[in-house]
DNA sequence: CGACACTTTGACTGTAGTCAATGTAAGTGG
DNA sequence: CCACTTACATTGACTACAGTCAAAGTGTCG
């Protein structure tokens, strides 16, 4: 369904930007060659659905941001995961994905067919182990977010999200030196997406961003580009 | 720290109630004997902390319910996971647990020391694989709960939780035949715990339970014992 | 320029939170 | 046996935070 709009190219591991950080890092030269044989590079434009319930896609994210969403029957939506390079995308060992994956920005993937990939998983225990560790980290993040959704105020939520993106998004265009407590980055999400991730409405998100700006906690270059003069202060606002 | 208050007995796999459903089901006779050598049965009374940040505990839950909680510095608390038999407890491959595990009821565990257990994981890939599948399911549940915390009303949250317990708690004293749409079970949680799991206050939980009772969606035998005359109706109320 | 997508701002509303009192049941000790 | 305590739950009155509905603002693209 998504195939006709997406470019497909054979994967080139030797030039891959996430070669050592992605799950591929668990493989030897020969094993990698094996994986490479079934890999295809794909470009997905902003807003396009990557994995509907029917066709599961497994892929490394090379560039861009992917949102995982769940929706109630009346349309209320919640983003349940945000994925950045070099994250692995896809619900393995399941008949159908329990959520939608959608490109939040233009996305570049290194995609694998379901069958071939799951076969390789059983063949190379190190690969499965790496993916297991990934999954454990994702579970920790999800539970961290449950605390935010269940207990934090709108103000704290917005601050927490900005902080999270400042930390995770360096690979998608963020400047952040851990010593100097300053950060500048570009939000990969619209206000509506921020709201869907934070369990708020877009109006509330907008108001909170305006407040943080007025107080000098953040500066806005434009709607997407954000400067955090002092990350410590943002951390205070975020709660924890 | 918890040791002095908890009974410890050698594990008896042949009499184990969760022998085939727990992760042990992935092991052969001989492998199981290996695991058995390092296993100790432990009883934990209601309210006692099982794993603080320092001492990680790995265990199968044999009986009772364990809650995983996260807390903000000012005391706001969120339950980020509820575990029933035969769930596996513990954050493997981590220096310290990112959350507290606490006995929501009296709990019986089959516990393993960290080092010995992680060694066995590397030795028996099937064991790790089983645990991996567990973790994937937990991640799905966590994300399901994110949708609840971010988007559902108080009424829908309470209904969803009752439904979840009706489904998951058969091993801790629930009667539920899938054909007949009737269910009776005992809540393993206080109102305060329900609130901490649902991201609400205990007053709001109490009011919603009262409303559901008044409408005949549920009946209360006592504060803990609940009858659902028609699970379909409860499902409607839960949203989705 | 006008159209469109996204964002901000304003006025008002409503759901769930807060604070406080009351209710209920089990357990203790005189 | 009954007062008393303790823990947990319910109910009520009031409040506040975020949601809703509506309008106006901003920037980009054709």
Question: What do you see in this structure?
Answer:
- Chain A has 240 residues and is an alpha+beta fold.
- The first copy, chain A, has 2 domains: 2-134, Jelly Rolls; 150-238, Arc Repressor Mutant, subunit A.
- Chain A is built from 7 helices and 13 strands.
- The first copy, chain A, has helices at residues 29-38, 114-123, 125-151, 154-168, 191-198, 202-214, 231-238, and strands at 8-10, 40-44, 49-51, 58-63, 66-71, 77-83, 88-89, 100-103, 107-112, 174-177, 182-186, 219-220, 225-228.
- A 5-stranded antiparallel β-sheet of chain A has the order 1-2-9-4-7. In chain A, strands 3-8-5-6 form a 4-stranded antiparallel β-sheet.
- The longest helix of chain A is centred in the middle third of the chain and has 27 residues, at 125-151.
- Chain A is globular.
- Chain A starts with 7 loop residues before the first strand and ends with a helix.
- The first copy, chain A, binds a DNA duplex (30 and 30 nucleotides) through α6.
